[in-house]
Amino acid sequence: MTSGSPHGPKASDAAHGAQVRTTDAHGAQARTTDAHGTDAHDWHDTCDVLVVGSGGGALTGAYTAAARGLDTLVVEKTEYYGGTTAYSGAGLWLPGNQAQERAGVEDSAELARAYFRAVVGDAVPHALQDAYLDTAGPLVDLLERDEHLRFEFRPFPDYYPAPGRIEGGRSIYPCDLDLPEGGHPLLAAVRPPAWAERFQLPAPDGPLTDGRALIGRLLLALDGAGGRTLLRTALTSLVEEDGRVVGAVVTDAAGRTRRIRARKGVLLAAGGYEGDADLRREWQGLPGADWTMGPTGANTGDALKAAVALGADTGLLGESWWCPSVLFPDGRAAFALGFRGGFFVDGSGRRFANESLPYDRMGRELRAARAGTDDSNQVWWIFDGRHGDELPGIVVVPADRAAFTEAGLWRTADTLEELAAAVGVDPAELTATAKTFNAYAATGEDTDFGRGTDPYDRFFGDGSGPNPCLVPVEEGPFHAVRIVLGDLGTKGGVRIDTDARVLRADGTAIQGLYAAGNTTASVTGPYYPGPGAPIGSAMVFAHRAARHIAQDA
Fold first, then answer.
1. How many CB atoms lie within 10 A of CB 542?
2. Residues β-bridged to residue 190
3. pTM of the entire predicted model
4. What is d(CA 535, CA 333) in angstroms, rounded to the nearest whole number?
5. In 3D, which of 39, 31, 481 has the Cα closest to residue 258?
């Protein structure tokens, strides 16, 4: 893989008399000339396929294109490869694949279709759902033909009790990737884990794991297929010629404007808009962009805005992959799941949901109750002293209790009444809530919200009572940690067809323009069917885009 040394356009690239339109992300038309105008064809680089973004979806599309002999260039806005994928556990919801088969998991596109239809229903065109489900398994088989790409099944339940569900889960994960002796420049540029980047710490030594393993493996495969990459190269606008997208304008690491010609197509797979505070306020009614798990400065909707400027239709702009998150002293938040102890209360001092729900479903409960969405109705995670100084759950960024206590985000008291006063809720309500919850723990039945009745709930439960998800809150000191509505990224964007072509409002495709992942309106609609649906669907539609580009070449 080379780092993209510029080379000029071929003579055949200049279609005499063609009209060229460059439109920036705000819809402003920068220049229109004929083919004899010097800047219309003053390309600084040329490729067959230009891929914007470097997450799991983007790199799958890039690899697919490069493996089919297309000159493929990936441009990444930041100094790291991987986007939000690199932060993730890298579960891949790709039903009916050979990695499942090796593990003895019986699955198929048809079984997954029954489940997916039961969950998503008619919220998304069935043809789009079928394109995802029918491509998922074969895609894994295809990827594993490359020596660098290896996957394994790991149990993690699907998220809804619906026909076709596999209680042990159907997701696969990338195998850990050992670093070669002496290192590798591509692997050295994989985005660090969330905790390391958040606290500006060095990435850990040893093998790449989880999302970082997926990105590393895809980069090696892309390198072997002859693909090229450019870091610190941000999309500014798309270039349209005679109604077809033929390239893009980017800003490079030195701040220079550069034009890249894409002879066959442009694939936008650059994440969502979760990092744009103004768009979060406008489209989602949220206070800003501080509580997302998206990498800082990475996902600000650049690709979405550029496509909309050319007439792309959009959908699901109010949606995200939601999750409860722990609020941190720096004002940001970190994804939390697998709550093994305690319960949540809102400003009333009462519970409002099953705290063991799959994280997107719990996030939707927070959003529906308008709890934890801002400071007006705060949510507190209440637990007792049996857990010591540890949070009884999984938080993807480690929490320093001393810093949290100083910031008022971790409060402790000898009694529940004192804790209630510390967090600003009615002491009588909080003590009554705890009394009821403890009674449920004794019987093993949560008659309010059914906590512990679903396989997903019990996947994390480790209590010793009749219901492992119900652990009493009765041993002082008592603790309260602030919970907010966070997300793993937005999931609304441009609408696409089954080949990932970007669509206009009238249903026609914008020629030469493709999109996948969180840049698009998700194939899952306002649902999160199972672990790995975001990355799995991104990989499928990026692959389908590259395949269509190759067939159309």
1. 32
2. 81
3. 0.93
4. 21
5. 39
Sign of CA dihedral 541, 543, 546, 552: negative
Mean pLDDT of 334-349: 97
Q: Which residues contact 282 (CB under 8 A, 6 or more apart)?
A: none
For residue 68, the one-letter residue type is R
Q: What is the Cα–Cα distance from 122 to 17, expressed in whole angstroms?
A: 45
Q: Is the pLDDT of residue 2 over 80?
A: no
Q: At which residue do the structure tokens 């990989």 appear?
A: 539
Closest alpha carbon to 116 in 539, 521, 529: 529
* Ramachandran region, residue 373 (left: φ > 0; alpha: ψ -120 to 50; beta: rest): alpha
In the structure encoding, which two tokens stand for residue 86, read together?
A: 């690199």
Could you tell me if 250 and 117 are in contact, meaning their C-beta atoms sit under 8 angstroms apart? no
Nearest to 520 by CA among 488, 496, 547: 496
pLDDT of 552: 76
Q: Quick check: 257 pLDDT over 50? A: yes
pLDDT above 70 coverage of the chain, percent: 92
Segment 301-320 shows an average pLDDT of 98
Distance separating alpha carbons of residues 190 and 326, to the nearest angstrom: 26
The span from the CA of 459 to the CA of 360, in Å, is 16
Q: Give the per-residue pLDDT at 36.
A: 32
Give the residue carrying structure tokens 């008619």.
Answer: 122
140: helix, strand or coil: helix
Please, which residues have CB within 8 angstroms of residue 467's CB and are 6 or more apart in sequence? Answer: 440, 441, 444, 445, 446, 451, 452, 461
